[in-house]
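quick one before i forget lol
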Amino acid sequence: MNFKRRVAAATLVAALAIVPISRAYAEEADAESLVNALNAVFGAHKGLRAAHPHGFCVKGNFVADPAAATLTKAQHFNSKTPVGVIARFSMAGGSPDASDAQKDNARGFAIHFDLGQDTTTDLVTISAPVFVARDPDQFLKLLQTVATKDKAKIGEFFKENPNSTGQVAWLNARPVPASFATVDYWGVHAFTATNAEGKKQVFKYKLVPVAGDVGLSDEEAKKKDPDFYRPELKDRLAKGPAQFKLIAILGEPGDPTDDPTAMWPEDKRKTLTLGTLSITGFEDDKTCDAGIFDPTNVTDGIDGPENDKIFPMRSAAYAVSFSRRAAP
């Protein structure tokens, strides 16, 4: 499996991404300005992603649960045979030297499903149920404020924007994950599924590790090598695949679909198992680096949110980042 189709798409989007996504963001929050702001905070690292540069590529397969067909007609959720996947585990932020033991940094798990005949779909998740900004303008202001390194200004930003504090609060309230394979991951955006009968259902994705949610104490985390996740996963995979249940959290009327900082009351929502994702081995990092994991790359039977301004901007920003790291 390769990313040839995604490379072509990324190149096209990158060419268009210098144009602001909408008139509302014409002065500031376009894809270029967001990537520049990430670089201002974390530095520009030639040949690497602007976001989530610390990570590695893996491979595996996805087996659909029969119940998935009741939710959506999407091909990978109706396949009778395993669907091949290329995926990437990573640490959030923009530092290639980010420590795996950092508690307040989200873990990332991006998945590329091979649907055959040069057709793909992607799923991008993090180890928290919310993002740090509700729209591109707020995200840009957050990055620009953090780049000042002025504690007073940063504190004032979070006081004025309490919705931007949810992700870090969630992460700090939980232990450092012991492995990329022992932590829950969420898709922070709301999608709409359509099944073969035309029934629609709003939902969010969640990945639940079969090995359980296992963490480290603060003292244990301090003793870990900054890059301990890679050897840990190598040892784990020598004993068998790292597996996750892919779950759909079913939305109800009133659940926000336009704000990725807003948390659904998950404990009060019904869920449906879509299938089992198995990570079976490592893949050459060049495979993942040859394209982008694009959350807007959906397939028939799944539609992205219409009014979530962060959703389309992510694709455009990833494409800008891709064009820069792919440049000679």
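fyi The two ends are 24 Å apart (CA to CA).
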